[in-house]
């Protein structure tokens, strides 16, 4: 039975619950908008990396750099799209 | 068919590893799909017109339950893949079934949330805010719904054919999809509900 619950994945799960709790604190604590947003950005991206490495086994095979390269490139394009649009439409730059 | 025994079953043939890499490229396109939805939401979330704002309609309790359900299901599908690598078909299928039940629970809460929004006058045509909110949530929910049918089909196939390089490959690819949906939800939870 024990071999069905690997320590690495249990730790990953506990850690992602902790990150969710930290993110949730932003909702209940009276933080400034930018402080809250900073915490959320950190917790969300750490949690995404955790999923990628612990649960999606991204770094375990020979094609690991193709996988990471593909994901990081798309995340980069995604961020350019999001922030580029915000620059134009919301922040008037 | 050449089997490489230094690799787990789902990677054991050349076709299998190409399939998995191909799915990663598909996930890259999915990142972009959700990025455009987030772009629209961030741009329009203040354009509430005569409709309600986010603070008016968001309720933290059901959203938190949805988050915990999806997070746990992502953990359990990880256990399923671990069991599969151990060659324990029974444990794998049990974990798969638990994953899908948690996913179904998530979907139940989300449908209830949508009914609630429409009921309080925040339908998809109310304002630019509600339109972009419901499109983003709905696209994620549609992915989860599709995943439930896909996962069910995989359970049936593994039951029928056992753990072969093909079925292991399909199961692993499904797990990637399911973890990806959890990652998207983390971003929805953080930047739509909590912000």
From TrEMBL, chain A:
<feature type="transmembrane region" description="Helical">
    <location>
        <begin position="35"/>
        <end position="55"/>
    </location>
</feature>
<comment type="function">
    <text>Catalyzes quinol oxidation with the concomitant reduction of oxygen to water.</text>
</comment>
<dbReference type="InterPro" id="IPR014250">
    <property type="entry name" value="QoxD"/>
</dbReference>
<dbReference type="Pfam" id="PF03626">
    <property type="entry name" value="COX4_pro"/>
</dbReference>
<keyword id="KW-0812">Transmembrane</keyword>
<keyword id="KW-1133">Transmembrane helix</keyword>
<dbReference type="InterPro" id="IPR005171">
    <property type="entry name" value="Cyt_c_oxidase_su4_prok"/>
</dbReference>
<protein>
    <recommendedName>
        <fullName>Quinol oxidase subunit 4</fullName>
        <ecNumber>1.10.3.-</ecNumber>
    </recommendedName>
</protein>
<feature type="transmembrane region" description="Helical">
    <location>
        <begin position="67"/>
        <end position="91"/>
    </location>
</feature>
<keyword id="KW-1003">Cell membrane</keyword>
<feature type="transmembrane region" description="Helical">
    <location>
        <begin position="12"/>
        <end position="29"/>
    </location>
</feature>
<keyword id="KW-0472">Membrane</keyword>
<keyword id="KW-0560">Oxidoreductase</keyword>
<comment type="similarity">
    <text>Belongs to the cytochrome c oxidase bacterial subunit 4 family.</text>
</comment>
<dbReference type="InterPro" id="IPR050968">
    <property type="entry name" value="Cytochrome_c_oxidase_bac_sub4"/>
</dbReference>
């Amino acid at each position: 039975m024990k071999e069905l619950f690997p320590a690495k994945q249990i730790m990953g799960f506990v850690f992602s619950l902790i990150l969710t709790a930290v993110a949730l604190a932003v909702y209940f604590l009276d933080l400034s908008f930018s402080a809250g947003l900073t915490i959320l950005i950190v917790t969300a991206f750490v949690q995404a990396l955790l999923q990628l490495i612990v649960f999606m086994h991204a770094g375990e095979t020979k094609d690991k750099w193709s996988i990471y390269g593909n994901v990081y490139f798309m995340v980069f394009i995604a961020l350019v799209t999001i922030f580029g649009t915000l620059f134009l439409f919301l922040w008037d730059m | 068919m050449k089997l490489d025994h230094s690799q787990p079953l789902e990677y054991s043939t050349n076709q299998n590893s190409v399939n998995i890499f191909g799915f990663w490229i598909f996930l890259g396109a999915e990142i972009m799909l959700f990025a455009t939805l987030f772009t629209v939401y961030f741009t329009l979330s203040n354009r509430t017109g005569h409709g309600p704002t986010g603070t008016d309609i968001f309720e933290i309790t059901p959203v938190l339950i949805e988050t915990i359900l999806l997070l746990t299901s992502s953990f359990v599908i990880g256990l399923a893949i671990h069991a599969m690598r151990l060659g324990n078909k029974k444990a794998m299928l049990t974990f798969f079934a638990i994953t899908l039940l948690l996913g179904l629970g998530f979907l139940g809460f989300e449908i209830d949330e949508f009914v609630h929004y429409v009921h309080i006058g925040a339908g998809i045509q109310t304002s630019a805010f509600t339109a972009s909110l419901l499109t983003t949530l709905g696209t994620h929910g549609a992915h989860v719904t599709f995943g439930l049918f896909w996962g069910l089909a995989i359970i049936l196939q593994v039951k029928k054919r056992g753990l072969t390089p093909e079925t292991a490959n399909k199961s692993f690819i499904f797990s990637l999809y399911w973890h990806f949906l959890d990652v998207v939800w983390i971003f929805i939870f953080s930047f739509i509900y909590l912000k």
